[in-house]
Write a structure and sequence with these properties.
Radius of gyration: 31 Å
Distance between the termini: 85 Å
Largest sheet: 4 strands, mixed
Number of domains: 2
Number of helices: 12
Strand order of the largest sheet: 1-2-3-4
Strand content: 5-15%
């Protein structure tokens, strides 16, 4: 039995695929990989079927499938044959091809469900180990840079501080101001029922300084700057720029990751403080409008009843949140593989994971400070 063969030739904008031998089902494994890998930039592709000794529906399916893929890319497909029977068979098979790809029906039952949980648990464990390994690499680069100060890149650090911190001030101020307004309005509507409107100052001060100011700022930074970190470094990896840096003797962790993480650690406490001030201003304004609490009374209540530890606790959280966001975002960028679709997918994952871990860290901080009585 003559095995099937496929040859490809392209001239003057016309690609020619010549088929010979017996293109039948029991011999398709010899050429199916070639069919699946066949692409062209030509406007016309011509199948030459004149040397085919035999072809059944399996062979016709390979040709029809390739024809459908090429026509979706805008390629005109033509046939050369001594008769019409093979072309009619290919047309019949192509008409029977499904218009949409089917969705695999996942296995059901208790055992597949347990297997799925086990698989996801293993994936989570591997991801956690990978993240810890990446954290170790970042700490190693940080210590090495401290021991060798000439390794610092001040231009990159200042640039990232501007992009991740200074440029984020408007959205942080607006967000915090509106949060202060909402807290004051909602608190006033509840406290008015008990004649305790003046305690709205304590509500706003403690909630913003201790929790909401820095937490919401971290969430905004994770969505804004963290996604930018993942997208920029991930795109560089897709374009093989990271491999080029390693070839030149440059460490991508030191050049790309360290300036971004340190910039966030420096700027997030500053953004958190700005958010606190903006939130208090918004709360004071709404308290004055809604409850008649004058700015002077607001400041007095703020100074008398608000412990400095409320502000300190929020500022203590800020560098930890920044480190979590920066490391997770850059780690996800390093997981990008092969295509722009992977960049988008890992950018989304980095934002979700960063926000989740920030909230977990905030909960742990709350338990810790509660145990300390602060």
């Amino acid at each position: 039995m003559t095995p099937p063969t496929l040859t490809y030739d392209e001239r003057d904008g016309v690609a020619v695929v010549r088929l010979s031998g017996r293109l039948v089902t029991d011999r398709l494994e010899l050429v199916e990989r070639v069919f699946w890998g066949t692409t062209t930039k030509a406007e016309v592709l011509r199948f030459d079927l004149r040397d085919l000794e035999a072809m059944d529906t399996g062979g016709a399916w390979l040709i029809a499938d390739l024809q459908s893929r090429l026509e979706r890319d805008g390629v005109t497909v033509e046939f050369e044959d001594d008769g019409d029977s093979r072309r009619d068979l290919i047309a019949t098979v192509q008409a029977a091809l499904p218009s949409e790809e089917g969705v695999e029906d996942l296995p059901r039952g208790f055992v597949p469900w347990i297997a799925m949980i086990g698989t996801k648990t293993v994936c989570v464990g591997k991801s956690a180990l990978s993240l810890l390994s990446f954290l170790g690499e970042v700490l190693q680069s940080f210590v090495y840079a401290i021991v060798h100060p000439k390794r610092w890149r001040p231009a990159a650090l200042v640039s990232q501080m501007e992009e991740a911190g200074f440029n984020a001030i408007p959205i942080v101020v607006l967000m915090s101001f509106l949060i202060g307004v909402v807290l004051s309005f909602q608190g006033a509507s509840q406290l008015r029922q008990f004649g305790a409107e003046v305690f709205v100052v304590d509500l706003i001060a403690i909630s913003i300084l201790r929790e909401l100011g820095i937490l919401l700022t971290a969430i905004i930074v994770a969505g804004r700057s963290g996604s930018a970190f993942t997208a920029s470094i991930g795109s560089m990896k897709v374009r093989e720029e990271l491999d080029a840096m390693r070839t030149l003797g440059l460490d991508p962790i030191e050049v790309l990751v360290l300036p971004r993480v340190i910039a966030l650690i420096i700027m997030l406490p500053i953004l958190g403080f700005i958010a606190n001030v903006s939130g208090l201003i918004g709360g004071a304004l709404m308290s004055w409008i809604e409850l008649g609490v004058s700015p002077g009374m607001f400041m007095t209540r703020l100074q008398v009843n608000t412990d400095v530890w409320h502000l300190a606790i929020g500022m203590i959280k800020a560098p930890v949140f920044a480190a979590v966001i920066g490391i997770v975002s850059c780690w996800q960028a390093m997981q990008v593989r092969g295509s722009a679709d992977s960049v988008g997918r890992h950018t989304t994952i980095s934002v979700v994971q960063s926000i989740f871990l920030v909230i977990v860290a905030d909960a742990l901080f709350s338990i810790f400070f509660s145990e300390l009585g602060l």
